[in-house]
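Write out the 3D structure for:
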Amino acid sequence: MFFWPQSVENRAALRTAIAALVAILISFKFHLETPYWSGMTVVIVSNLYTGSIIDKATMRILGTIAGAFLGYFIAGLVVNSFLLYLVCCFLVIAVSVYFFNYSKHGYAYLLGALCIFIVISQLALNPQNAFFVAIWRPVEIGIGVFVAAVNAYAVFPNHIKDNMVVQVHDIFDEFLAEFKVLHQLLIHPDVNSSELAERNLKIKKKIRTAIELIGALNQEIGVKKEHVDRFRAYMDTLYAISRQFQYLIILQPQVTELNSLKKLDIDPLFTAIEHDLLEFQTKFDLRQTEVIVLQTSDVLADFEQRVNRKKNNLSVKSEFIYSFINYVKQLNQNFILIKSLSSPEPVAITPKYKVISKQQRLRSDYDLIKHCIKAGLSVLLALGFWFVSNWPGGLNGIISSLVISIKGKNLFDMKHVSIHRFMGCFLGGGVGLISLAVFEMNLYELIIILLFFVWAFSYFMFKMTEYSYIGLQANIALIITLAQQGGPPIGLDPPLQRLAGIIIGITATIIVANVVWRSDVWTILKRYIDKLYRFIAFNLEQVILVAEDQRSLHDLANLFWLSRGLITSLGNEQLSLKKQNLLSALTQRFESLVIVQATISHILVTIDLKKAHETALLFQFDLLSHEKKLIESFNLQNSTAGLNLSQTFGDFVTNIDHHAAFASANDESIRNLLAYVNALKLISLQIN
């Protein structure tokens, strides 16, 4: 019987081990000077999924070839000027780090910069060797790329399109559980509502993970662009459902509101929602060919009829009840949109606003520019250590300083990256050295050791994602130790040079991080939250005061995830009382911004602003003036003014039924206005 590993991680680890060994053996066959580059390339581009490997391998080979060409050209320009050499080194790194963060092809820019360094570093080692390295380094890396790409399809392939089905099924399971908890909460008020927030965050994380794989989906055979676009729209719609749910979580329903909802018989509504979620789950496929039958629309229509019949028993000021009804309406619209994605002609989505993406913001982001400058200075300092000490491994030091600068944007991250890099180096190098001490190390023993330990380190890397960098570095150290020119190792220079280089790189990077624009984790977290506040203030003004066809809103998902990630990481650390209080204050501010963001989304999707202003005029309520005051208070972070505004909004809601216009105004218009005023009140309370 043919052996087929059951887990995705095990298949990927076996594939990586086989590909790394094949790449090294090919390099041995052609007597390449540094065959470990071929094996290193395989483990560096390794991934769980075929499309991700092809995507990364393509960028690696293109970046390497371009970097080799530019490196040789630059070497000719700077060969007679040490100052020009340093300036070029700085500019190459600064520009590559900028595009690494800015461009979706950032990995190619990074590899291009590394290859430029490898070539021009020969000016300090052996100037006559620059041309040789510019030709043969891409060849060695190209062998690794080619072998990795072929093996991705031929040896235990894990296709993203297959995994997407599993991920989407899992997401729908989470949605089913979330709506079950909501149903229980509406029936039994004693149910803990915090579970809803935890489940919704979990759903968002899973959707985000699926979205991150979409780019690599294009690289897989048999997947057309229309399938990718359809899946992206599918995930965006699921994310919209989760994001709109956030506002419902924020509201705290009163016991009287819950009793009123129970009298409206909400059970059929949740049964229909469950049916439709199961329908989407069981019939999901990238090609979406099966017919989907929905029940929510009809059940919602019956529910609204019951609401209309009993509206005299429902307070028009019941914020939670009508927010719940509005959410179910939006949920139904999203269900219809998802269903349309399975039809030959999906419903065209007309965006209500222009999106200012992360890339657009980064074009002139001062923090990114500072980060690029610091990365360049770290490399120059590593170069300085190398030149002054003449310590072997200078080139590895440059690479280490660059990698640590990119992966660690603050001292907290740098510490973890450095520790993981050291641990991986000692683990892989230690295995290699012990193997050399125990075995004679002929070719057959080399093959067995490489196969087993590359598989083991790769499995650890794929399975323990939190510590995956340790597994990667262990693989690299092992391959450098064992895969040397001509066959099994005859010296220890490569692994010792790598260890020395890591020490140089870590030292240089941490010195620069502490001296130039010191970037401790608390400063970075506060900076992220301050940015969120500014961008949310901009979004708030756009939604409230700018015409619908002229709105431009910042996409803040990535910044929210970065901030949440830092808060979670710090929460797992042993902190002093002072730092615990600081973390608590920053977390509270972050959660306030989450509430504001959810409220803005609620206004954007649910509220008819034009109708709200028209209704406000009937009650002689100067809504526009209060909107402007809210924007001004939010921009100035004037919490006192925010509290005063919240009192004004609260008084209006409390006394609206005493106004003469209340009896003649349309109920739907009043609910729309009250929903808007309550949303503004909620925002005003979050100003800090």
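Strands lie at 354-356, 552-554.
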